[in-house]
Amino acid sequence: MTTVAIVGCTHAGTFAATSILNAHPDWDVHVFERNATLSFLSCGIALWVGDHVSDPRKMFYSSPAELEAAGATMHMRTDVTDIHVAEQTLEFRDLETGDTQTLPFDKLVVTTGSRPVVPSIPGIDSRRVQLCKSWNHAVELKERSKDAKSVVVVGAGYIGAELAEQFSDIGVHVTLVDAADRVLANNFDQPITDIVEDRYREHNVTLALGEKVVAFRDNDEDDTVTVVTDGGEYTAQFAVLAIGFLPNTDLVRGQVDMMDNGAIITNEFMQTSVPYVYAAGDSAAVFYNPTGQYDYMPLATNAVRQGMLVGANIEQPTRKYMGTQATSAVQLYDLSLAASGLTQGGANRRGMDIRSTELVEDYRPAFMQTTAPVTSILTWDPNTRLVKGAQFCSTVDVSGAANVVSMAIQSKFTIDMLANVDFLFQPNFDQPVYYAGAVAAKAVAEQDR
């Protein structure tokens, strides 16, 4: 019988376990997880803080009991303390009893996920500074939000941006701090982030952008914390740190190939440099189609698809990973924002010669009783004319457009091809030329001048 050890069980681990057991119900599959829960949808934390979750228990889509019923041997509240890849054994400790054991394995699946970035800053270990990642963090944030009057959110990426919006929606005064000079600077270019920043100001969120945090100072006399930056000081009842994630891969460091940041490099079948070791999710690198290079992009969508591929390939390589465009979306106040692939800023940071085209037009005809403008930004390679990315922003749902561009990038569409796709036209939904096609047509015209 083949013994499989799966270390870590959030998204990638859950889907890896399920897919392996579906394909090989007779295999001996052991799942190790430090926490008492699995499959937590942390993307719902901000929504729960803002009272937009029907039932927090529904933020879990699986359970230890479900995986056990499928045939897995579950080791919950268990810490894997060491992995010996060459010897094909791992050591683990029960966090409740302290008992330690060793498990020999035939196949190892590393789905250990990621950990929040916590820089060495004076005062960062304050009880008034908390993280936003796990179920325990979510419970603590929800509890704090009930009586909170003020909060400082450090980090204006997706997590920080959503927390700032939801806190402001329930009447908490928010200061949003980021070392970048724009909110969502890694996700959208300035024409869109300018719109988002205006919304924050309309909702009385203080933006402290282009400021690096240098210290946290506790104020015990009034039970607050002061976030000290290189540009000012901001005091609130508590602060939330949301400045990014790093792969949690120390257990196999030096035993399989990794990127400099510790993300495990796999082939297109999710195998590491050691053929019987697989990796998926936030612990693994992804092949980023817009650049043709491996990158680190911790997203649940990547984790789910990679986890499923582990089961498809764990006996023999059969189904290839198609790479990612890091397609994503977020709702902030009345704004729907969606993106796929490279922004102009992302291309510039990588030293790539990429052009961008912006188009602002109503999403449906003027004769409709209501309509709304959509800001579209398309990025493309001026030499190959290949589509490299796009961003969309509107008060109407534009998420589908990002999925369209994701398929275009993955299928190696040129701007000419995207401009000529057979998109539907119906006045309730769009213009005679759908805005994803219209911005591509504008790019064609700009390139052919």
TrEMBL record:
Annotated InterPro entries: FAD-bd_OxRdtase, FAD/NAD-bd_sf, FAD/NAD-binding_dom, FAD/NAD-linked_Rdtase_dimer_sf
Domain FAD/NAD(P)-binding: 3-307
Pfam families in UniProt: Pyr_redox_2
GO MF terms held by the record: oxidoreductase activity
Keywords assigned: FAD, Flavoprotein, Oxidoreductase, Redox-active center
Cofactor: FAD
Descriptive protein name: Pyridine nucleotide-disulfide oxidoreductase
